[in-house]
Amino acid sequence: MNALNLQKGASSHSAYDLRDPNGQIEETHTLAVLVENEPGVLARVIGLFSGRGYNIDSLTVAEVDHTGHRSRITLVTRGTPAVIAQVKTQLGRIVPVHEVHDLTVEGPAVERELGLFKVHGQGEKRVEALRIAEIFRANVVDSTLESFVFELVGTPSKLDAFADLMRPLGLGELARTGVAALSRGT
Predict the structure, then answer these.
(1) 65-88 residue pLDDT tens
(2) What is the rounded distance in angstroms from the CA atom of residue 162 to the CA atom of residue 141?
(3) Which residue range or ranges hold the ACT domain (predicted)?
(4) Which of 18, 50, 52, 178 could be cross-linked to 60 through a Cys-Cys bond (beta carbons 3.0 to 4.6 Å apart)?
(5) What helix, strand, coil percent values describe the chain, rounded to 5?
(6) What are the start-end ranges of the E strands in the chain?
(7) What CA–CA distance (Å, rounded) separates 119 from 167?
(8) Radius of gyration for the alpha carbons in the chain, expressed in angstroms and rounded
(9) N-to-C CA span, the chain
(10) How far lies 108's CA from each of 39, 64, 105, 163, in Å?
């Protein structure tokens, strides 16, 4: 998982070379998994990925049905079409899993992520950070004489772009929630 990773491109794959060693193109997929909210379920899902050497780029989990005790796991992963099909099949076989949806192929979906960005700076860098934050509609949630903490909600690429612009201005720390996603329409 690279949610806390500050270095863009620190993953083992380049954004420009999404091929596996056999020449197949890797795809990024957002999966929504409805599970029983019980101890060990998340560990079993993550174990499926780690045991087969698959990476999880983003992971969010929250209870979505308090009376039915069900949680929704939203995860973003990469792989060839065959790997993605295998992941979905294997997820469906885990006993406390009720549903597996591939939001990438089931139709249009809305994806959002929350990021907190601590930017250190004074003088012109401070003014420029505020100007960029306004363009991105980021909120200032903390301010000292030496730094700001900005809150930004948007697509992962929007958060990436904001981080790229803040790095030369003094980006010190970054925390990201991971993707939350829902299919659009009925």
Answers:
(1) 999 999 999 999 999 999 999 999
(2) 16
(3) 30-105
(4) 178
(5) 30, 40, 30
(6) 27-36, 56-65, 70-79, 97-102, 109-120, 139-143, 147-154, 171-176, 180-183
(7) 8
(8) 19
(9) 31
(10) 32, 21, 8, 26
> Do the domains 109-183 and 27-102 match in fold?
yes
Show the tokens assigned to 35.
């599970």
Residues 163, 117: Cα–Cα separation, whole Å:
8
| 14 SS3 class | strand
Give the residue extent of every domain in the chain: 27-102, 109-183
156 bridge partner residues: none
Angstrom distance (rounded) from CA 125 to CA 127 = 5
Domain 109-183, CATH:
3.30.70.1150
Using alpha carbons only, give the angle 37, 41, 44 rounded to the nearest 5 degrees. Answer: 170
CA distance 155 to 137: 13
Buried b (16+ CB within 10 A) or exposed e, 112-128: ebbbbbbbbbeeeebeb
Instruction: Calculate the alpha carbon distances from 6 to 14, 49, 136 in Å.
Output: 16, 23, 19
pLDDT in tens, 105-137: 999 999 999 999 999 999 999 999 999 999 999
The amino acid occupying position 130 is L
- Fold classification of 27-102 is Alpha-Beta Plaits (3.30.70)
108, two tokens: 């249009």
